[in-house]
Amino acid sequence: MKAYIAENKQRFLDELFDFLRIPSISADSNHKGDMLTAAQFVETKLQEAGMDKTEICPTDGHPIVFAEKFIDASLPTILVYGHYDVQPADPINLWDSPPFEPVIKKTALHPEGAIFARGACDDKGQIYMHIKAIEAMVAKNELNCNVKIMFEGEEEIGSENLATFVKANKEKLKADIILISDTAIIANDIPSVETGLRGLAYMEVEVTGPNKDLHSGVYGGAVDNPINVLTKMIASLHDENGKITVEGFYDKVIELSLEERAALEAAPFNLGEYKKDLDIAEVNGEKGYTTRERAAIRPTLDVNGIWGGYTGEGSKTVLASKAFAKISMRLVPNQDWNEISDLFTSHFLKIAPKTVKVKVSKHHGGQPYVTPTDSIGYQAAFKAMEEGYGKTPVPTRGGGSIPIVALFEKELGLKSILLGFGLDSDSIHSPNEHYGVFNFLKGIETIPLFYKYFKELSNA
Ligand code: BES
Ligand code: MN
Ligand code: MN
Question: What GO molecular-function term can you cite, just one (predicted)?
Answer without folding.
Answer: dipeptidase activity
